[in-house]
Input
Amino acid sequence: MVRAAPTGPASAATQISADPPFEPADDNFHRSPDDNPYWAETTWWSFNVPERKIGGWLHAQFNTNRGTVTWRVYVWDPAGAAQPDLRYFRMATDIPVDDPTPDLRDITVPGGGFSVTMLRPLRDYEIAYADDASDFALRLRFEGVHDPRRFTPGEPPFMEHTHLDQLGRVTGELKLDGERIPVDCYSIRDRSWAPRGGPRPPDKAAKPADSGAPAPSRVRHPGGARWREIERERGRGRIQYIFGHSGPDTGFLAFVRVADADAGGWAPLNHGWLLQDGRFELLDKSTSRMKNYRDPDTGWSSHMQVELVDVCGRTLTAEGIAVSHICESGGGATALMRWDLGAEIGWGEDQDIWHPKHFARMRDALQAVR
Output
């Protein structure tokens, strides 16, 4: 059984808030507080090529108490969103981690996965990956624009998680079907460590009636479009995560409180930042909000309006358009987003995560003709 070295500070959600800065040791693994087999440590890197409407991910989840890792690398563009149509997709599940003391600051993910090399603690990294059989490769450098941002544990969606997000300039090269494509963008990395993927607690909410209408306890603010009402049913595991930046001085990142949206479709934002004039501030959760619109054919996000207010009262209005999608699970999709940030153009993502059955119900309502 692989045990990660106890290199970081205490990670119990009750011992930290949004304020303490991360430490260099947080670049490495964190010891699980118990033997929970679902204790997980993640590393995620994103990039994009706006001129080609290309988005890309490298993601690994280490279940250190089980001694395994599941990783995936993929690239998408307008050619197609389903796995067979993606420009590149590779995933390896539950690969044994044989190193008894792996170091996430200098690691090649087992099973042919990508590598991560820390160059400057909490700031700069190199990420590399190659699949010679597919004539595919990535070599990227992530240079953090700011220190990693911590969001408060104990609030959705971080009920047990210690989580960080960080904006960085991502430069390097993508080799796609043998074509060498320069990468120069601003995008996000994130990390979390906490139990993940275990059995869900029993659902105490009443099941929808046979008529298909949601039980009252499922929808906090009934009314409005039927598909929007289905979308904001509580207890469905819905997560939506959006971000967009035009560079190191302007942009935003936010988690959407979908279940708290009003009947008109405006949903408050729970965690995140506003970046303006090169200064980061936390979002004002009471006034920042987003309204999403969906493609009636796919049900995926097509465009959205975002009204951002930070805790200092600064404001920014952002309008996003989805230019390409990837759909992994048959439910929602991740979109590469083009953002109008005032007079500036930014790029980022909309990660629209659903349980497939919940998504199917929403899409059926969106496509209804009577």
Observations:
- The chain has two domains: 38-195, 220-367.
- The radius of gyration is 20 Å.
- The first helix runs from residue 226 to 231.
- The chain is about 5% helix and 45% strand.
